[in-house]
Every structure is written in C-alpha cells, then in structure tokens.
Automatic annotation (TrEMBL):
Name recorded for this polypeptide: FAD dependent oxidoreductase domain-containing protein
Keyword Oxidoreductase found: yes
InterPro entries: D-amino_acid_oxidase_CS, DAO, FAD-dep_OxRdtase
UniProt entry keywords in alphabetical sequence: FAD, Flavoprotein, Oxidoreductase
Source organism per UniProt: Hermetia illucens
Cofactor: FAD
UniProt KW Flavoprotein keyword: yes
GO BP: D-amino acid catabolic process
SUPFAM superfamilies: FAD-linked reductases, C-terminal domain, Nucleotide-binding domain
Family: Belongs to the DAMOX/DASOX family.
Gene3D superfamilies: D-Amino Acid Oxidase, subunit A, domain 2
A Pfam family per the record: DAO
Entry-linked PANTHER family: D-AMINO ACID OXIDASE (PTHR11530), RE49860P (PTHR11530:SF17)
Length: 234
C-alpha cells in the first residue's frame, strides 16, 4: 500500500450525527468526540505476546530486583522495560505515576468510543465497556476511591444516560508510568561492584504505552542491535 493510500484511509470525516447516534448521545453534550477505532485488549494481547516470545525461544525468570546489581548473571545487554520500577532500580526521579480508575460494565449496546470533558471516556471492549476516568499525578494509591467511583459513574451516565442500566462487573485502579519524556536510549553503567553493564531503556510511556509500544519497541531493538554489532562502549 502506498503512503497516499494510508492517508486516504486516515483522514477523519467530519459530519453531523445521525438520528440513531443522537438517540444514543442524548446526554446534553456541549462538546466531545465519538469514534470507532482499533482496540488492543491488553488482557488478551499480553498472553498472546508472551506465547509468541516463548515460541521464539524466549525464557522467562520472574524475579523482583531492587537494584541492577541484583542481576548476578552476565548479559550482553539488558533491556529495561520496568515502567514505574525504573524510578528505584535506576534512580530516575523523572518517573511518576499518574493514577487512573475505571469501571468495567456490561453494556453491549455501546459500539463506539466516546471522549468528553474532565477525562471522561467510554470505551467498548470484547467483554465489557470501560468507563473512566481520572489522572491523578503522583498518586500511588491502588485502592478504589469511592469519591472517584461516584464522579466517574455520574459523568459517564450524564454523557450516555443508557449506562445507568448497565451492570457493573468490576472497578479497577492502575498507575500510568509517566516520564517527561519517554526514555528509549542506551546507557552504559558501572555498578558499585565495578561491573560494566550495557542497558537499553524503554520506559515512561504514561497513559499511551499500549498505543506507542510497537514504535518504541522497534527503536529499542535497533539500539540493542547497534550495541551487539559494534560491541560499543559509551
Ligand atoms: C487507567 C489506565 C488507562 C490507560 N489507558 C491507556 C490507553 O487508553 N492507551 C494506551 O496506550 N495506554 C493506556 N494506559 C497505559 C498503559 O497501560 C501503560 O503505558 C503501559 O502499561 C506501560 O507498559 P510498560 O510495559 O512500559 O510498563 P508496565 O506495564 O508498568 O510494566 C512494567 C513491568 O515491570 C515490572 N517491574 C517493575 N519494577 C520491577 C522490579 N523492581 N523488579 C522486577 N520487575 C519490575 C512490573 O511488574 C511490570 O511487569 C493506561 C493505563 C492506565 C493505568
């Protein structure tokens, strides 16, 4: 496919809402957006990616590490994808959490994604619809907050009143691993015990890690290849 072909496909089409869409969005909106798009459902994608990694010869050793010196074995290169963990492992204090909270509800009649004011979003998935959200900078709380729950539910139902009837499946909290800017680069480190370690960092994607990972991962692989091919030291 040529570049132009892609561009043709990607140009957004602005139009008035149809009668059917207006019926769905009868929540007295001032402004906002609704659209259909590609969705990566991490719950399904991550097991698939892990199967693929193992099928290609990848080995997995689950282990918590506090510092890079905890890795006793010698590796040609270490790829650091530790998200928020990089704050402590690599003493990178630019890494901060942006806390988010969501509902998962049963609402199979919702076929499009909706974005409104105050970080309000409604995203249909395979088994449920996600209602969000919030962005709380530097909050580490993993508890579901009843105040956030109330505000999120209220805002989503105001946007799409039919959600009042949706059965709540679960509520969840997550910490987005934010860094200004995302760090994808090489670093050559000498540990306190004098060991030289070659690292390729790939972390800090904040609220966009699922979307941007294919690109940053590709760049990280390029950096790994550079290290391995030149045997370079910074
Ligand atoms: C509410 C919410 C909504 C989101 N919405 C979107 C969205 O719409 N689109 C989008 O693209 N992204 C979204 N994201 C962001 C996305 O989830 C993250 O950007 C993505 O998970 C980052 O992936 P990662 O692999 O870099 O980090 P993580 O997923 O955080 O993975 C880091 C891994 O490192 C491990 N680790 C950390 N420290 C250590 C240690 N000391 N020792 C051993 N292991 C360690 C962790 O256990 C974990 O497995 C959302 C996130 C949240 C919370």
């Amino acid at each position: 496919m040529t570049r132009n072909h892609y561009m043709e496909k990607l140009v957004p089409v602005y139009r008035s809402a149809t009668e059917e869409e207006l019926k769905l969005c009868n929540g007295n909106w001032k402004y906002g957006a609704f659209f259909t798009t590609v969705l990566t459902e991490s719950k399904r994608f991550l097991p698939y990616a892990m199967r693929k990694f193992k099928a290609n010869g990848g080995l997995v050793y689950p282990k918590h590490i506090d510092t890079i010196s905890d890795l006793k074995q010698d590796y040609d290169v270490i790829i650091n994808c530790s998200g928020l963990g990089a704050k402590h492992i690599f003493s990178d204090y630019k890494v901060v959490p942006i806390r988010g909270q969501v509902f998962k509800v049963k609402a199979p009649w919702i076929k499009m994604a909706f974005y409104g004011d105050l970080d309000t979003y409604i995203i249909p998935g395979f088994e449920s619809v996600t209602l969000g959200g919030c962005r709380q900078y530097e909050s580490y709380s993993m508890e579901v907050s009843k105040y956030d729950s109330q505000a999120i539910h209220e805002r989503c139902c105001k946007m799409l009143p039919s959600l009042k009837d949706a059965e709540i499946v679960t509520e969840a909290v997550g910490l987005r691993p934010h860094r200004d800017v995302v760090r994808v680069e090489k670093e050559f480190i000498t540990t306190t015990s004098g060991k030289a370690i070659r690292v390729v960092h790939n972390y800090g994607h904040g609220g966009y890690g699922v979307t941007t990972a294919p690109g940053t991962a590709k760049h990280a692989v390029k950096l790994v290849r550079e290290i391995l091919s030149t045997n370079s030291k910074l």
